[in-house]
Design a protein that fits this description.
The chain is of the alpha/beta class. It is built from six helices and nine strands, in the order E-H-E-H-E-H-E-H-E-H-E-E-H-E-E. The chain has one domain: Rossmann fold, CATH 3.40.50.170. Helix content is about 35%, strand content about 25%. Helix 1 packs parallel to helix 6. The longest helix is centred in the last third of the chain and has 24 residues. The model has no long low-confidence stretch (mean pLDDT about 95). Bound molecules: glycinamide ribonucleotide. The site of glycinamide ribonucleotide has 16 residues, from helix 1, strand 5 and helix 6.
Length: about 210
């Protein structure tokens, strides 16, 4: 059995999810994806998962009568599929605090900027890159971080920067950042698979 038994959450296109799948196929990542969860029935990631016989489903708050049933369903799906680690891969909703606490130290996210800049509520997807270009930044990048109960806030595990040429549009920056996302997310997941990540006083140390 692979060393990481993952639940992956994705909301949209799913290119990060694909980069994780490719890394597993190419044996750069010692992990199994036990379940793909989306909030969005149209998510491309759902098709990628189903095409590979990976269990996949939609869990959307709006489909539940109350928050408690929604959270209970999320827990039971993760448990029933044997997920003991969570990777958020372009997931645009906040994970319920109960789930974050239950998976503390074993739930990570990828953000398309160099945190702590350009993070927080409302800072996701293209909004991040528009803000970066509006601010006139000369670099941006991707951050992989442990998830805590605040948006884009937990300890940073990995970052990689990209230059922003003066002529770049937000779409250009997004594409440049996405290329490094596809490198650092599988690489960082492998650090967890090898149990190399330690956290002390809000800072991570890679053994
Ligand atoms: C990625 O750039 C990811 O970092 C970002 O959404 C995109 C999803 O692309 N995530 C966030 O903004 C979360 N705060 P993908 O669906 O092709 O992986």
């Amino acid at each position: 059995m692979a060393r990481l038994q993952m639940g992956v959450f994705a909301s949209g296109r799913g290119s990060n999810f694909l980069s994780i799948l490719n890394a597993i196929d190419e044996r750069r990542l010692d992990a199994d994806i036990r379940i793909l969860i989306s909030n969005n029935p149209e998510a491309g990631a759902l098709n990628s998962a189903r095409g590979r016989n990976i269990p996949a489903g939609v869990i959307n708050r709006a489909d539940f009568p109350d928050r408690e049933t929604f959270v209970r369903e999320m827990f039971s799906v993760l448990r029933n599929h044997g997920a003991d680690f969570i990777a958020l891969a372009g997931y645009m909703k906040k994970i319920p605090d109960e789930v974050i606490h239950a998976f503390a130290g074993r739930i990570i996210n990828i953000h398309p900027a160099l945190l702590p800049a350009f993070g927080g509520k409302g800072m996701y997807g293209r909004f991040v890159h528009e803000a970066v270009v509006r601010a006139g930044c000369k670099v941006s990048g991707a951050t992989v971080h442990l998830v805590d109960d605040q948006y884009d806030h937990g300890p940073i595990v990995a970052q990689r920067a990209i230059p922003i040429p003066d002529t770049d549009t937000p779409e250009d920056v997004a594409a440049r950042v996405l290329r490094v996302e596809h490198q650092i997310y599988p690489e960082t997941l492998q650090l967890f698979a090898e149990d190399k990540v330690r956290v002390r006083n809000g800072r991570t140390y890679i053994r």
